[in-house]
């Protein structure tokens, strides 16, 4: 067989294996999260939910209000995606540790910003101390395909060390926007 056909099949097999791995992790995460609650707690939650929606709504919005709020949120999300150029294509969350005062969740995000794709893995550490809740990002890992651009690889390394998601997304949006402008300019002169 032709090498390009074999490579295409191998790429497809690898893609399917990754998808199976991701789905397996998502299933295990759902199973793990469902074991945190006893049958008694689940039944109490269901009864509480039923009482809340069978009686009069006490400060809760009606479904039509929820639909309007959802449409508003979708509009806001669409605006932010157009404004920043960042579009998320997938997200997965796995609870690694959950105690009374501490929760650790592992997140995986993938998406693209203009013409560049990215993948992030990080852990969110949520600590509760009385009424104060603090959240920190740890173990940030960024995977991007920028080729041999040393400035970008230095930026990614420093961002991983700092664990700053906000800095990453701000800088990514700005860099990719100007990269697109440069690319279009150079195409114009060719």
Automatic annotation (TrEMBL):
InterPro entries: CENP-P. It comes from the Eukaryota. Pfam families: CENP-P. Residues 6-33 form a coiled coil. GO terms for biological process: CENP-A containing chromatin assembly. The keyword Lipid metabolism does not apply. One of its GO terms (cellular component) is chromosome, centromeric region. The keyword Coiled coil applies. Keywords: Coiled coil. This is Centromere protein P. It comes from Podiceps cristatus.
């Amino acid at each position: 067989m032709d090498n390009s056909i074999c490579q295409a099949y191998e790429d497809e097999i690898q893609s399917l294996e990754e998808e199976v791995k991701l789905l397996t992790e998502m299933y295990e995460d759902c199973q793990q999260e469902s074991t945190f609650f006893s049958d008694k707690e689940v039944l109490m939650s269901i009864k509480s939910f039923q009482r809340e929606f069978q009686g009069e709504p006490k400060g809760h919005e009606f479904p039509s209000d929820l639909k309007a709020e959802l449409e508003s949120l979708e509009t806001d999300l669409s605006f932010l995606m157009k404004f920043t150029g960042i579009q998320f294509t997938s997200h997965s969350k796995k609870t690694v540790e959950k105690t009374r005062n501490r929760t650790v969740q592992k997140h995986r995000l993938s998406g693209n910003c203009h013409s560049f794709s990215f993948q992030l893995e990080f852990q969110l550490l949520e600590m509760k101390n009385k009424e104060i809740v603090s959240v920190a990002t740890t173990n940030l890992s960024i995977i991007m395909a920028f080729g041999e651009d040393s400035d970008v690889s230095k930026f990614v390394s420093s961002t991983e060390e700092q664990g700053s998601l906000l800095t990453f997304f701000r800088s990514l949006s700005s860099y990719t926007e100007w990269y697109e402008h440069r690319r279009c300019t150079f195409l114009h002169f060719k």
